[in-house]
Amino acid sequence: EELPQHGRDWTLAQYLGRLASDSPTPGGGSVAALVGALAAALAGTALCLCWQALTVHFNYGGNWTALFSTGDYRIVPPQLASENIYRFRGSGYDGQFYHYMAHDPFLRRGLSQYLDAPRLRYRRILVPALAWIAAGGNDRLVDAALFLVIWLSIFLGAYWSSRYAALSGRNPLWGLGFLAVPATVVAIDRTIVDATLAALTAGFAVYARQGATRKLYLVLAAAALTRETGLLLVTGYVLYCAAGKRIKEAVFYATAAAPALLWLLYSSAHTSGDIPLQIAGQPVGLLFRLRILFFGSYASLPGPVASLIRTLDWLMAAGVISAIILALFLFVRSGRRPENYAALSFAALMVPVVFLVNMFDPFTYARLSSPLLLLLSLEALRRRWWLGSAPLALVLLRTAAQLGPQAIGIGRALLAG
Questions:
Q1: How many CA atoms lie within 13 A of 230 on its CB side?
Q2: Cα-Cα-Cα-Cα dihedral of 150, 189, 356, 349, to 10°?
Q3: DSSP string, 334-396
Q4: How many alpha carbons lie under 13 Å from residue 171 in its C-beta half-sphere?
Q5: If we measure between CA atoms, which residue out of 162, 236, 152 comes closest to residue 193?
Q6: CB count, 10 Å around CB of 200?
Q7: What is the pLDDT of residue 303?
Q8: Which candidate, 172, 199, 160, 162, places its Cα nearest to that of 183?
Q9: Which residues are bridge partners to 92 per DSSP?
Q10: DSSP letter string over 11-39?
């Protein structure tokens, strides 16, 4: 870029002024945008940490292991007996398995036998492995390191969302919207890996737009290692390159899936077969869900509460279906950006989910659809078309409602104090 011919001092002053402004720099951002993104990321992470601290203190007696959501139907590994793990009535949730994996990421200690579906779970190795590495393999530090990885995921998700907002000419503080992504809400409550994939989805949107080859490649490789649905980001970008007849680029980015595939070979060789995970019951999944919606299965809830939850279930389903339709619409009508290809890939995943997965678990749709909902919301932010965020809002309503009992517990304790 040529500098104005007004003397060296004037040029330096203009350059420094440009750095301090919101004007784009060659790197695709500005100092102000960078500071705003960091501020949003720190604020978002702090808010999540405050919520966790409050609910652990007031609802779980100060036992942070409650965030692993360990059920009392399963045996806790004897190797972890000293941890005094908080137990819930029932089968618990996925976070308990990622907790065990973080203590045995390389399948050397036999903890895989305590997982519901070891071969499936161990495909999602990135978060447990990062926790183990951060703890230096020390069992006493692994739990804290696992929380740290989740917090880092939220930080990066908010940061990248803020950067995308800045690249779109919007205030970086819009990045705080990452806290509204359903996977983030679930991960704060149950320490699952989906917030990490959502964060990497935001990173994908930023680096795909900037054309940052190395960073984009690393994000794609990390997404595939986070969970198998992360491969859809790789698929989306490969299709984008292929559609533009950039075959060499398509082949190059396809290799981002190689680490996940190599890990799959290793983990499959050291784990037993999966539990069917309701595969046999999938053909009647739609009928079961319709029975829930029309005839009710909330016998343990008071009538008004059951009606509210049933309504929110309907809205959640409507949100996912509208997200699928919107992804297809934007793909057809827009300029076929990388984000559109990725969104279409995730929309293709959600089609069978809508018809074959029941909503008895209020977090299933929320977790699986989060990358799609985030991509659509970022597109809405870029276009200043707020209707594009409606699917996220509809799914979020049901997800947030699940935290109601915790919020009531915190409120009662604070009022009593």
A1: 34
A2: -30
A3: S---HHHHHHHHHHHHHHHHHHH--SSSTTHHHHHHHHHHHHHHHHHHHHT-GGGGHHHHHHH
A4: 6
A5: 152
A6: 27
A7: 76
A8: 199
A9: 70
A10: HHHHHHHHHHSSSPPTTSS-HHHHHHHHH
- Beta bridge partner(s), residue 340: none
Q: Is 105 helix (H, G, I), strand (E, B) or coil?
A: coil
Q: How far apart are CA 73 and CA 56, in angstroms?
A: 22
b/e map 351-367, b = 16+ CB within 10 Å: eeebebbbbeebbebbb
Name the residue with tokens 């004897």. 78
**CA–CA dist 187, 67 (Å, integer):** 9
Residue 376, token pair as written in the block? 């659509």
Cα separation, 12 vs 16, in Å, equals 6
The label of the residue with tokens 């398509």 reads 250
- Alpha carbon distance 386, 382 (integer Å): 10
In whole angstroms, give the CA distance from residue 167 to residue 304. Answer: 45
Cβ-based neighbours of 334, under 8 Å, separated by 6 or more: 340, 379
Query: Are 220 and 229 a contacting pair, CB within 8 Å?
Result: no
Dihedral sign from CA coordinates of 48, 50, 51, 55? positive
Please answer whether residues 373 and 339 qualify as being in contact, where contact means their C-beta atoms are separated by less than 8 angstroms. Answer: no
Alpha-carbon distance of 182 to 184, in angstroms, equals 5
Predicted local confidence at residue 297, as pLDDT: 54
Instruction: Judge whether 236 and 338 are in contact, CB under 8 Å.
Output: yes
Radius of gyration of the chain (CA): 22
Residue 59: name the closest of 417, 413, 415 by CA: 413
Report the alpha-carbon distance of residue 76 to residue 67 in Å, rounded.
15
Interstrand relation of 70-71 and 87-88 (parallel, antiparallel or unpaired)? parallel
Q: Which two tokens stand for residue 128?
A: 């447990």
Measured CA to CA, the distance from residue 300 to residue 37 in angstroms comes to: 44
CB contact at 8 A, 217 and 389: no
Taking 70 as the pLDDT cut, the residues of the chain under it are: 1-29, 273-301, 335, 358-360
